[in-house]
Amino acid sequence: MIDARYQAFDAVVQTRSFEAAARRLNLTQSAVSQRIKLLEAELGQVLLVRSKPVQPTPAGRRLLPYVAQLRLIEAEAARALAGDGAHAPVRLSVGVNADTLATWFLPAVRQVVKEEAVVLDCVVDDQDHTHALLAGGDVLGCVSTRPDAMRGCAVRPLGVMRYLCVASPDFCARHFPRGLTRQALARAPGIVFGRHDDMHDLFLRQHFGLDAGQYPQHVVPSSEGFWAMAAAGLGYGFVPAIQIAAQLSDGTLVDAAPGHAEDIALYWHHWQVQSPLMAKLSDAVADGARAVLAAA
After folding, report:
1. Domain ranges of the chain
2. Which InterPro entries does this one have (predicted)?
């Protein structure tokens, strides 16, 4: 079983309160506090800021990924000892971007999730920021655009996700009768996913000299809602080609910027030391991505 001191630290971080952690662990608040003090004394680091809510210190944040791994190993050990009988599902937290989740990720991990009785906790963020979730201990693996491994982690290339700038034929006829021009783009409403989505901004700045704020844009933080808004003729934006193959084929959407596809290389990050179950999930992610994404 996970060391009681680490268990107390984990509970306080998750509940952000000594009182709530005590209730979760069926202990007194004093007992939780004492266990945290013993852990801090052993490590020689202050791990928690005693504020409301309680926050981990920088040292505490560095400890979080290892505590998450301990929690997973404990769950898998309990499952192994239970034998072949019924056992509780094991929770695996992963960081993914919305487009990955909407396209290839779930088909890739489906078999492992079903056969191993896994429950997934999918934490969604932009692919340029998911590695921060791994570093902070929020997830055990993540899909990211970062090619280099973080300390204590390993990285596996997954392939390239190709994005096309698409719109409905009617939208293109109304807004881009002469193709994409700086003047037309300054008036036509674009579609962006959210505050971390800079693909649209970079495209217009690089090719047309338009900076953010110089053109209107819808904000649609939904992968499916994004292309649906484009199909409805309300704007134009960058969508994964594999997500809209049918719409491109039947003419619901068209490539508004031929020759200007954006290729995003994706990588799977995970801790170097993985539990057997997490290793299976990592293999499934890599194999599933390889079958769908273009080679880097």
Report:
1. 161-264
2. ArgP (IPR017685), LTTR (IPR050176), LysR_HTH_N (IPR000847), LysR_subst-bd (IPR005119), WH-like_DNA-bd_sf (IPR036388), WH_DNA-bd_sf (IPR036390)
C-alpha to C-alpha distance for 261 and 241, rounded to whole angstroms: 9
- What amino acid occupies position 272? Q
Domain 161-264 is in which class? alpha beta
pTM over 0.70? The answer is yes
**How many angstroms separate the CA atoms of 72 and 274, rounded?**
9
251-257 contact pairs (CB < 8 A, 24+)? 251/169, 252/168, 253/166, 253/167, 253/168, 253/227, 254/166, 254/167, 254/168, 254/169, 254/172, 255/164, 255/165, 255/166, 256/165, 256/166, 256/167, 256/172, 256/176, 256/180, 257/164, 257/165, 257/180, 257/203
How far CA 50 is from CA of 18, 19, 21, 36, in Å, comes to 9, 12, 13, 11
pLDDT in tens, 96-114: 999 999 999 999 999 999 9
State mean pLDDT over 71-88. Answer: 70
- For residue 98, give the nearest of 71, 129, 69 by alpha carbon: 129
pLDDT tens per residue across span 115-155: 888 899 999 988 778 888 888 778 889 999 999 998 888 99
CA dist., res. 283 & res. 287, Å (int): 6
For 277-295, write each residue's pLDDT tens digit. Answer: 899 999 999 999 999 998 8
